[in-house]
Design goal:
Strands 1, 2, 3, 4, 5, 6, 7 and 8 form an 8-stranded mixed beta sheet that branches. A 3-stranded antiparallel beta sheet has the order 9-10-11. The chain has a single domain, classed as Alpha-Beta Complex (Nucleoside Triphosphate Pyrophosphohydrolase), CATH 3.90.79. The protein starts with 7 loop residues before the first helix and ends with a helix. Helices cover 18% and strands 36% of the residues. The mean pLDDT is 91. It is built from 3 helices and 11 strands; from the N terminus they run H-E-E-E-E-H-E-E-E-E-E-E-E-H. Strand 9 and strand 10 form a beta hairpin. The chain has 198 residues and is of the alpha+beta class.
Length: 198
């Protein structure tokens, strides 16, 4: 996480087309943070995601990382990500080693500027989803998203405008949009690490 980040170049690999990358000039987006929780199981690194409830205000029914808006009491975006992960999945903040931050990402539909925070847990967490916000917990080996056949494209409607949407397939779930873009940068960073000389 101390190396230069892959940034928008990696995010764009999973970006719907068309997509806005910056807020309107003069506007002030809401600041948010999400936690990318990683943990080992045997020799495999897993990542935890969640499906939001259908009645969620923003991104209802979509796959996301735990997270939400920065609140005045939060001292920084890391505290926001840890607080939200605790509120939504009961991930204990003291169990998370923060590895670093990925590139912030603007989400136009909810007018959010999201800061991804990568966290490491030494063992699989005993998760307790908040039923008001979380419909389902999804855990997958991180390398699943690098396998052939996991990536595909769908066409979705955005009002009257069709969107060409790249997706990571996880079981019956399609991971797309901001979550897929954030995940794409994490995977690109891992690929960069694997190419470093020993």
């Amino acid at each position: 996480m101390q190396l230069p980040l892959p940034g928008r170049q990696a995010q764009q690999l999973m970006a719907p087309a068309p997509r806005r990358y910056e807020p309107e000039p003069g506007s002030s987006p809401r600041h948010s943070a999400v936690l990318l929780p990683l943990h080992p199981e045997g020799d495999t690194i897993y990542i935890t995601l969640m499906k939001r409830q259908e009645n969620h205000q923003h991104h209802a029914g979509e796959i996301s990382f735990p997270g939400g808006a920065v609140e005045p009491a939060d001292k920084d975006v890391i505290q926001t990500a840890l607080r939200e992960a605790y509120e939504e999945l009961d991930i204990q903040p003291g169990d998370v080693e923060v590895l670093g931050l990925l590139t912030p990402l603007y989400i136009a539909p909810s007018h959010n500027l999201v800061q991804p925070v990568v966290g490491w847990l030494k063992s699989p967490p005993a998760l307790k989803p908040n039923p008001a916000e979380v419909a389902e917990i999804l855990r997958a080996p991180l390398m699943h998203f690098m396998r052939a056949g996991t990536l595909h494209w769908e066409t979705r409607q955005n009002g009257q405008q069709p969107l060409i949407v790249p997706c990571y397939q996880l079981g019956e779930n399609c991971i797309w949009g901001a979550t897929a873009m954030i995940l794409s940068e994490l995977l690109a960073l891992i690929c960069d690490l694997e190419q470093l000389p020993a």
